[in-house]
Amino acid sequence: MMPARYPSLAGRRVFITGGATGIGAALVAAFAGQGAQVGHVDLAAGPAAALADDLAGQGLAAPWFRAVDVTDVAALQAAIADFAAAAGGLDVLINNVANDTRHDPLATGPGQWRALMAVNLDAGFFAAQAAIPLLRAGGGAIINFSSINALLGPAGMPAYVAAKSGIVGLTRALARQYGPDGIRVNAILPGWVVTDRQLDLWLTPEAEAEWMTQVALKQRILPADVAGLALFLAADDSRMITGQSLVIDGGRT
Ligand SMILES: NC(=O)c1ccc[n+]([C@@H]2O[C@H](COP(=O)([O-])OP(=O)(O)OC[C@H]3O[C@@H](n4cnc5c(N)ncnc54)[C@H](O)[C@@H]3O)[C@@H](O)[C@H]2O)c1
User: Fold this and answer.
1) 65 lines ligand 1 (CB under 6 A)
2) Which atom number of ligand 1 is nearest to the Cα of residue 71?
3) In tens digits, what is the pLDDT along the chain, a chain of 253 residues?
4) N or C end of the chain: smaller count of CB under 10 Å?
């Protein structure tokens, strides 16, 4: 399937958190493929270098990258400022980073709770705080990654579910506050997307078979499918869409 072409994305400056692997890597590749200038941060420097090589092999520009732990707010905000300075501005922020570690509610101490909120909720807020003053007036976009787990509330990951629900609220609050400045803020709620991490940790053949009984579309959701929605939400084609939660789950919810 050939991805759609969005002329408004050519040259746009796009910053992505957690861009080295999984959906994040698909986002980096998809925006680079549109001729955007992409910057991203991740803990995983090795996979980020491999991604840059892969893009270079396709004749695409190497993305700007810095190894950053997004729970270090000062380092995250400095990376956004430095990318914007290097790229000559900022048009799009994509808050993609997350950690879906399972944990027992009754055995979760304040430290583990705080750490999970720091990566799954706080990073989105503090990245937006750094990005908003830099975003191009009249045309900036923020895309926040939530999850259908914010709607379904599965057991075994209460911090992730709480944080992803918070992302939906944060999206609406920022959309209302910065809409008058022409900044759009939307959330993407994916269903089960087949990434290497999901295959390694959770997506067993049995779990996938059960998932397929629950969805309307009996096919895997791929990272590129999700990236395609992000392209649309970043492009001028979606210029009157803000404050929304867009589900991409094959009809699970
Ligand atoms: N994969 C799915 O099935 C699925 C479903 C619903 C929602 N989502 C959401 O989509 C987004 C992307 O999902 P994914 O499955 O690709 O995630 P992932 O966990 O596979 O990848 C996240 C990336 O963030 C990086 N990262 C993790 N902690 C970090 C930290 N503290 N600092 C910097 N980088 C860090 C990882 O190295 C990785 O490259 C997430 O927000 C996730 O919650 C994914």
Assistant:
1) no
2) 31
3) 678 999 999 999 999 999 999 999 999 999 999 999 999 999 999 999 999 999 999 999 999 999 999 999 999 999 999 999 999 999 999 999 999 999 999 999 999 999 999 999 999 999 999 999 999 777 899 999 999 999 999 999 999 999 999 999 999 999 999 999 999 999 999 999 999 999 999 999 999 999 999 999 999 999 999 999 999 999 999 999 999 999 999 999 9
4) N
163 CA to middle of ligand 1, Å?
A: 13
One DSSP character per residue, 17-81 reads ES-SSHHHHHHHHHHHHTT-EEEEEES-HHHHHHHHHHHHHTTPPPPEEEE--TTSHHHHHHHHH
44 lines ligand 1 (CB under 6 A): yes
Pairwise CA distance, residues 194 & 201, whole Å: 11
Q: How far apart are CA 210 and CA 59, in angstroms?
A: 40
23 CB near ligand 1 (under 6 Å): yes
H-helix or E-strand containing 189? Answer: strand 184-190
The model's pTM: 0.98
Domains and CATH numbers, the chain: 10-247 (3.40.50.720)
